[in-house]
Amino acid sequence: MESKGSGRFTMSRCLRSGDTVHASVVVTLLLGVWCASALEVSVGKVPFMEAMNGSTVLLPCIYSSCIGIKNLYFNWHYNDNGTMAKLCEGVIPIEGVEPRVQEYQERIEFVGSSKHNNISILLFNVTFEDEGEYTCFARNPKEKNRNHSAVFTLFVVDELKVVDNTVTTIIVSVVGGVIGLIIVVMVTKTVVLLILKKSAEKNAGIRTDSSSATASPL
Ligand SMILES: *[C@@H]1O[C@H](CO)[C@@H](O)[C@H](O)[C@H]1NC(C)=O
Ligand SMILES: *[C@@H]1O[C@H](CO)[C@@H](O)[C@H](O)[C@H]1NC(C)=O
Ligand SMILES: *[C@@H]1O[C@H](CO)[C@@H](O)[C@H](O)[C@H]1NC(C)=O
Ligand SMILES: *[C@@H]1O[C@H](CO)[C@@H](O)[C@H](O)[C@H]1NC(C)=O
Ligand SMILES: *[C@@H]1O[C@H](CO)[C@@H](O)[C@H](O)[C@H]1NC(C)=O
User: Fold this and answer.
1) Which of 112, 105, 33, 36 has the alpha carbon at shortest distance from 72?
2) For residue 22, is pLDDT > 80?
């Protein structure tokens, strides 16, 4: 509630009358650019993931369209060493209506939802052969059947993380120990230097006393 109010305050402070016109022009332009690309498919900000063999992974994909969709065709395919293997395909009749999806691989399951523009799939029991590029493809007849796609890369790993952690722990302890040792050495050095300086001052004082004592009779 409070942050909203302060946000509006900053806005009104920044946008004086002339700026408001500019801002609306910019917004219109942005909308125009955004709408020109109509349909968009995305596999998320991080287009890859590491999965352990035997696990189940979500291959994410969402679409968006500002002109709306009608009979949106989509599929997922896997780049199997150059040949594209189709994993599943479906058609979303209109927004909000769930598609009938055909799955061509028994370990694939469509888990998307038209309500959330989600056309993600699950891949069960991952094997090392599943590593590679998965393409989420979509085509909206509303925009001259232009093709859109996004690629998600899957890496399959064995349980190596535990070993890595042990190595990391060892490295961290060694580095920590060395840094601790350096600190101890430096503190010791400072203390010793301080003591030496103190005793040197004392010695100097004694010497001045003795020199003045020997000098005075002369
Ligand atoms: C992963 O692969 C390794 C080596 O092939 C195998 O020993 C292990 O059982 C596999 N793990 C699972 C969960 O399938
Ligand atoms: C993939 O292709 C390369 C070269 O084209 C070949 O050497 C390799 O054996 C192929 N791998 C599989 C899994 O088919
Ligand atoms: C995944 O593996 C488990 C255990 O091996 C098996 O019960 C299950 O049916 C498999 N799931 C699929 C979709 O293959
Ligand atoms: C898509 O749906 C799946 C399954 O319900 C869910 O796990 C995933 O988070 C959804 N993705 C997005 C971007 O909403
Ligand atoms: C879209 O892809 C299909 C193959 O899936 C191809 O036949 C068609 O020519 C492509 N359309 C455009 C406009 O690139």
Assistant:
1) 112
2) no
- Of all protein residues, the one whose alpha carbon is nearest to atom 5 of ligand 5 is 147
Q: Please give the number of the atom of ligand 5 that sits closest to the Cα of 137.
A: 5
Could you tell me the residue ranges of all domains in the chain?
1-36, 39-159, 161-195
Distance separating alpha carbons of residues 172 and 165, to the nearest angstrom: 10
CA distance 134 to 120: 11
Residue-wise burial string across 88-109, b where 16 or more C-beta atoms lie within 10 A, e elsewhere: bbbbbeeeeeebebebebeebe
- β-partners of residue 79 are 84
Residues above pLDDT 70, as percent of the chain: 73
Q: 39-159 in CATH: which number?
A: 2.60.40.10
